User: Fold these one by one.
Assistant:
Number 1:
Amino acid sequence: MREMTEFLGREYEEMEKQGLTWVIKSLNGPSQPHVEVEGKKCIMLASNNYLNLANHPKLREAAIKAIEKYGAGAGSDWSIAGTMDIHMELYKKIAEFKGTEDAVTFQTGFAANAGLIPQLAGKGDLLISDELNHGSIIDGVRLSKAERAVYPHSDMGALEKVLEEANKKDYRRVIILTDGVFSMDGDIAKMDEIHKLAEEYRAMIYVDDAHGEGVLGDGHGIGRHFDLEKEIHFQIGTFSKAFGSFGGMLAGSSDLIKFAYNKSRTWLLSAAFPPHVAAANIAALEVVEKEKDRVKRLWDNTKYFKKEIESLGYDTGNSQTPIVPTIVGDSKKAKQLAEKLYEEGIFALAIVYPMVARDKARIRNQMNADFNREDLDTILNVYEKLGKELKIV
Amino acid sequence: MILTVGFIVNPIAGMGGRVGLKGTDNVVEEAKRKGAKPVSPFKAREAIKEYVEKYNDDIRWVTCSGIMGENILRENGIKSVEVIYNVTSRDTSAKDTKNACKLFVEYPVDLIVFCGGDGTARDITSIVGTRIPILGIPSGVKMHSGVFAINPRIAARVIHEFANHKLTVGDVEIMDLDEEKYRQGEWNIKLFGIAKGIVEPIYVQVGKMSFESIPEDDIKDELAEYIEDEMKDNPEYVYFFGSGSTIDYIARKLGLSNTLLGIDAVYRGKTIAQDLDEKGILDILDRYPKAKLILSPIGAQGFILGRGNLQISPKVIRKIGIDNIIVVATPSKLAATPLIRIDTGDKEIDKLFAMKEQMLVIIGYRLMRVVKIQTNNI
Ligand SMILES: Cc1ncc(COP(=O)(O)O)c(C=O)c1O
């Protein structure tokens, strides 16, 4: 017999049995270093709000003013009647900030990847993707009719092997896609080497810098960090992380942006984000440029935390950025540690199998520019205590 | 639901190894005379002890009397043991294994855990086929089949994870060495058949942190679709379909009659020859100079050449050309062996592969992955 909605409950139960379901904890106020989670006061170690801009007075003020001037919604798709002058102002600002000819925004970073990648490559093309790329890149790649090759994480030998094999066939286009900063390990893509290989084998480069913006290259991202702002063909980003706001972006040549305007289905068939989001985004870029000290504080905190947590005996893997994982072993232990951290007033996320290898389950600690020494020492003391209790260190 | 496990120990498995007999099939007496001591009871004990100490889920054990299972379960304090097969002779044989398996099928158990080597796996598969999943506690001299855990302790963990739905069931190959030939110095590992083994589920990411496991057959369907496109795009090529479970599935999906253990040739969407030997392949290559060879890792160690398909001789490989070899694999196979192994018996060819270092393996529809190559002769 044909089934009806029973499958919903059944499949949920199956996932629950396998321990794969996700429990949502909600915040009772703004996202900032000290938060209230379901009534409990916590230090926030799980947010992408690296520069603590999410509740920054300048962003709030800009958003409120924009609501007063433009109202709450954009009223239409970007392509039809939803683009306001404040959106255009934002595009210009992004291009300046990223050092590219032009830029455009998308509803989210996810929408940028899902809408753009399938248009960049089709039948007869090859998309080459790092195995740890974000799910939105994977989905964008899946939507394309191109062939797809996955290489082991940051393995440049393997990437070269794919490029070599690609030369034996006559692909029309070849694009290498990578995260700028990998969100589970906090390591940086080897953009200098990728760039060299891309030049040598005539491939294009597509970077999603969601976790690199506001963090690398004085806050300008991976392009500035490697001095490759003009060489990276497709630069994707998001305002939802260090920039403390919301919305995806694409920066590159003006040809690319015109192409995106007319081809990206997520851009063409979905509404523009509200004007106050554009205003907050403009403010975010201004704050990053003006308050130079913010990025520096983020890195100071990162260096201090990384050094101290390692000296406690924790393994931070390949971390090179404010994402500093503590790798503790099996999934059960990581979940246990996350629960205990929460009991101690630290909100942190356990990353477990199959997101990472079975023996590499971890807590993903994300630093914040506005943690003070006392916050960091509180976190470290709890880690020291729990590490001994759970026999991790 | 409580898991019912059929437990069977082949008490003589692994005895030949220590006394240089390379297997115990048909030479038990000789092994004993040479002073061989039982191995498998120790391995089985190690696995069960670990299981009881570390996991001890609520499992119903069904087994054979005495040394073929019961003793080891009881001495580790397992209460829920039901003996359904009585060993009558002191010298157990393949017949006992097979008879016990018939009863396991009738019962029916959810999983058969056995302690032995490739020979035992072959005996069990000859009775249960793909009806019941099989897990091997390694103890034999040879363990090329895909049903074995890496060691007895891991076997314990696999039982636990299977009981708790963390692992799933998938196709694996049962391999066997021709022991007669081997003792005469000839190395010929044959593919015996397909069994159900316990494998890593294939996960796809749903949310950032949430995953869903998808059936292995969905991936094989994608592989089939890819091969179908590949053949359509290159109508001038003849395609040789290798052996093993993955390729067998693909061929059947494409409506081709295929031999599981053999090499078949397909041209313009039709099978033109089946179960070819070396000469048969070479004859076809004379008639159709453009050819591609579709291979998939067979058995436990990830071999695509040199195990279970000796028909694909060095001469055949040279004629086809190594760039015309298409390797397909499911993610669960690659999870078990993240390497592609090659042992053609021809130093030069092995070296060509070794120099490649890595190859692109098809793992889904239009989806490839870079995988390291390991050759034996370098
Ligand atoms: C690399 C990468 N791309 C895209 C996204 C999604 O960004 P957004 O929240 O704007 O959809 C994320 C965040 O999870 C990410 O890490």
Number 2:
Amino acid sequence: MNAYRAIAHGLRRAAGAPALVLLLWLANLLVALPAAWVVADALEADVGASRFHHSLRAGFDTAWYAEYRLRARGLAATFEPSRTGKGVVYENLDAFFGGDLFAGSPAVAGIAVLYGLLFVFLQGGALAHFSAPRARFNPRRFIADGGRFYGRLLQLALIGLAIYFAIYRLARWLFGRLDESFRDGGSEQRIFVATVIGGLLLIAALNLVRLVFDYAKVATVADDQPLSVVALWQGLRFVAARPLRTAGVYAGVGLLSLLLLALYARLAPAAGQSTLLAVAAAFAFSQLFVAARLFLRLSLLGAELEVYRRSGGV
Amino acid sequence: MPRRRATPATLAAALLATLAAAQEPPGKALSPRNANYVIEVSLDPVAKTLSGRQTTTWRNLQQTPTDELYFHLWWNAWRNDHSTFMREDVMRGRSDHGDDVREYDWGYLEVETATSNGVDLMPSRRYAAPDNGNEEDRTVMVLTLPQPVAPGESVTVELTWRARIPRTFARTGYRGDDYFIAHWFPQLGVYEAAGWNCHHFHAATEFFADYGVYDVTLELPDGLVVGATGRLASRDEVGSGRVRYRYLQEDVHGFAWTASPRYLVREDRFAVEGLPAVDLRLLIQPEHRAQASRYFHATKAALEHYGRWYGPYPYRQLTIVDPPYRLGAGGMEYPTLFTGGSAIINPFGGGSPEGVTVHEAGHQFWYGVVGNNEIEHAWLDEGLNTFSTARVMDVVYGRTKLRRSYLNPPGGRPGGFVRVLFDDVLESRAIHGSRFARFIASEGPTMDPMSVPTFLAYPAGAGSLSYHKTAMWLHTLENYLGWERLQPAMAAFYRRFAFRHPKPEDFFAVLEEVTGEDLGWFFDQVYYDSVQFDYAVAKVTSRPAAVTGYVEGEGGELVYRDGKKAGEAGEEATIYRNEVVVRRHGGGVFPVELLMVFEDGSEARRAWDGGERWRLFVDERPSKLAYAVIDPERVLLLDLDYTNNSRLRAPEAAFPARKWASKWMIWLQDLLTTVTFFL
Ligand SMILES: [Zn+2]
């Protein structure tokens, strides 16, 4: 089975389980919603009865924001104009690159942990669903499977987080060395190129680890592997035995994700909506983007499971 | 008080006449030329040292004799960590090197011989500590002369010195074979009526010197592109791979130079109707070559608008330096030369490098031509210039887009190469370059009044006072008086104090004289005091004006009336009593206007001297009040909280709050999706 076919299969499996996509999207939406409520209340309280409501309705008002940013506390302090519209893509990509995902906010970190715990559960259910070929989506079984694999997948995730953390620490140190090496000479062009190359290596390292963990998760579910350490070993062996195919599938879906990000960065609704309908439409469009990201995420699981199944496991 | 009215054009013409001499060869002095320097300096690129031989001629402009000469040895600020500069750097929590100052980073300037008319002055040499008694600081050197210099008389001193170039501090130093060399030679302080004005080099302040003629010969290794104050008089190869460059400039108060193998040279000419032409020379990094036209455009914008508003640029040439990456020399002004700064990916529209270019080119006027004491009153150039920069940026470029820098790796360095603009998030002139944000962020009740000399102000807050607060109160003054009144006043100040050293009182006096306005009440608050301004609309109500309750009837008996029913009969509309309570939360007082807007679209404006702590405004009309705004045109930019300046009877923040929260929510959702990468 070649990579292209596996990806197509993954996309078909995800498309064939709209309920699953819906579930993942709803989980994401519902975790974010209370936080957005808190921010909305903070914004409303800050704008209060002032005339700034007018300029904020029609667009953004940097004069108001100059005051707001000094008054905002907690979650509300993470509201920045650069985190809206296309900035969503730039900010989060940069945060991913820098390994600094929570915007310095304990509240955001807490929400991310909560969502992470939920996601591990959903991922278990989704993997179990995909591991049964042509199965129809069954919510009860989905929940049962999510629970059945939860402990093992969570263990894997924690091991993974430790490794990712180590990679970021190492990268931090290496970038520090790089910076140091240019302290007393070297052109902007050279350090720019060196940073880009360093960045690509960092991204490659993160994705390589991710690839192995993906197949460890697949092995956990497809083989009902009880020990996560063994599953990790299986994942490693599987990827090592089929580096081109596994990486090809991964990179293919990764490329689609990048295209999606680029598309959203271009099409993201800007500040202009001034009617409820326009705001709702912009919000709905953005939700499509979030759902599409999750859809690709599911497609990758489906594709990787297919690769694993067709290769007869380890 | 007699009011002198002058149009910008007539003022510009008058100034043009006075300053036209600058276009002539030396002889017609624009300045007193009482501190003149002939310097020959040689660079050792391996040891990173300079050896200098300098002849300094000084003329006593005061009415009292002196037998002492005070010299700034600026580079001794980085001789060791006991200098005043390094100690203050710690206090202000910002420095060029953090805690990481290495052996080869330190620099110094050591005078080796000093003679006058053959008399050795070295035995008399001492170091002064005029500001803080720091005896270990070596930035002020005093030489005692064999005999006093009488008023109007001159003295010539020969010095030889050796300097170690620092790894850039305060925008001067080297990185590899890139050099930016400023404030590098023993430079005389300013002899004033009260004696020598020669401060230590302080961390949060800059420079002060007399005007003179500079004749500087740089002996450098071959292969460097050189830029310097003044015009290149000669370039001679002197063998063993060395080249001598001789630069000349009259009527300046300093001399800076830069050398690097990396610069590309671009040339252009500023030529607009009514202003003298200026040759522009740009030294730009190859990575930024596509931005050359943007540097030129912004420089010309500054020369044109400052030229028309205040007076012409008086020199024949101007050198723009786009400094080498991480040399740390960006964004600084020197006579007839300044540094900008950019990034490899830097789209047009975000105000960079235009903003820094306009600002530093603008310093040729405020600092270069009008030579205030930057150590004592930094605001006189930084504040006037920040104000003017924002004005030029607004006139020429309009509103700039929000700019963010990306490609930041773990740890953050090296990073920020990619700048992205947000088309729909626009900065206005009032908050240009975040100066409003920085102003309100730092404007606590514990700020120094601006009358505190800059070098004595709390180091972490001194910058905000000089740049942001001044720009905000000048802009407030522009709103209050009108540009057509403020501009001639600033032009008069420029004209009268060109090539002189004005004090704050001079600026205030010229402003009052030319505008014909008593502004003491304003300067007392924004300059001599540190009061805060904050007006607010505290309450808005609308009720039927007709009485409800018991009133005397026609026969004198008490009858009950229901005011809400008045006008219901249809013969007349209900009259509403609209009440607005405004409050003054801050200590500052400023005349403000109250705007009331009614539901039927009608408006009412009321003036208020802003003096009382609160005031009730009442307006009766057949319409309810929609909202009220105190200072609706935002004249008082110093108002720290403008959100509370307006109040709707029925708040409408729910919609925009939910709109923006819904956009923020996408960020959070996408962030959560990104987090799943790791799970
Ligand atoms: Zn400045």
